[in-house]
Amino acid sequence: MCSRQLFGGILRYLEHFPHGGYFKGKNFVFDHRISIGSDDVDVLGTCLICGSPFDDYSSRCRCANCRMLVLVCYSCQGKHEKYACELCQKYEVGKNKIHVLQNNSSILDVSPNSLASVQVESETMNNITNPSCELFRRNVLDHTGKLRILCLHGFRQNASNFKGRTSALAKKLRDIVELTFIDAPHRLPSTYRPTDSCFEQGSPSLMAECKRRFAWLISPTSVSLDEQRWEIKQQFDPLQFQMQTEGYEESYLCLQNAIQRMGPFDGILGFSQGAAMAALFFEHQRRNGCSSDFRFAVLCSGFAPSTMKSDKSCIECPSLHVFGRGKDRQINTEASRELAELFDSNISVTIEHDMGHIIPTRPPYISQIRSFLMAFL
């Protein structure tokens, strides 16, 4: 690397160089992903219990004393329920509650409260037999089919990147939905460009590792991909989405081809610019008198395309609009509300969350998203 701060941070660097480049290991992040790493197979972390190579944190594996996340391999997770991190073991924190065997082969909770918790869990499981829970299980868990949803990524993303960002959503809805991801047709230049020093250090192979970035809509002044040198591009412009007005025809054909090759789909999910593209797709079919290829739309952190704002006709398709309430620094709240107003208000649902430019997966938002989708099963 270099001595100065890395432009965009480690996360941006790993997005462009999925094999890691000069970065080794994983980077801790404070969201549902927990850690972000490269495709490099080398594992630097070790299991707290058996010491085997392991670097996949789980939110369920925490120190029983300080609540710090600890690395516990899948084999050891099935054998133990309570853990003590290395520092708590070293300073004997919570010694009366946590018993650690000398050979480090087992960590057990011997406190009286542990027995009470087991009894509560047993009672909870028994309550599942009541009629209302059985009805829920028949309608959701035992449903043989799933909703197939085509997912459109945001600006300067790709199918693989968006799939990773929505992994928590897919996991929490895996019993009712199946997500399919595609790349937009317009390829964008990299944030980083080659410098003479890169080639002097024998690093031109990093160009081959650099992940491609795509867009559904581009500005008329978009730069060419024919770059000669690597250098830092200008900082992010929060109003850039207002200038992205070109390239719709290619993107419409891209969606049609995806539907023919991988469809049919029940719904479409668009994020940021992908949500704007989904709205343009519905509007195109409405104007041409075509039957809709989708039964519903889920539009997250989206914005109303400038070409649609003057149109007073609404899109008659059930829609769910999810966006941050004043905390989205990339797409402002008013732009997302304008997008929602393009759809029939009688068959649309709006969820305003207290987070930023993301698709929320924590309660109560995930329950609201699930409720909307359940209506189409």
Automatic annotation (TrEMBL):
<feature type="domain" description="Rhodanase C-terminal">
    <location>
        <begin position="24"/>
        <end position="89"/>
    </location>
</feature>
<dbReference type="InterPro" id="IPR022111">
    <property type="entry name" value="Rhodanese_C"/>
</dbReference>
<dbReference type="InterPro" id="IPR029058">
    <property type="entry name" value="AB_hydrolase_fold"/>
</dbReference>
<dbReference type="InterPro" id="IPR005645">
    <property type="entry name" value="FSH-like_dom"/>
</dbReference>
<protein>
    <recommendedName>
        <fullName>Serine hydrolase FSH domain-containing protein</fullName>
    </recommendedName>
</protein>
<feature type="domain" description="Serine hydrolase">
    <location>
        <begin position="146"/>
        <end position="368"/>
    </location>
</feature>
<dbReference type="InterPro" id="IPR036873">
    <property type="entry name" value="Rhodanese-like_dom_sf"/>
</dbReference>
<dbReference type="Pfam" id="PF12368">
    <property type="entry name" value="Rhodanese_C"/>
</dbReference>
<dbReference type="InterPro" id="IPR020936">
    <property type="entry name" value="TrhO"/>
</dbReference>
<dbReference type="Pfam" id="PF03959">
    <property type="entry name" value="FSH1"/>
</dbReference>
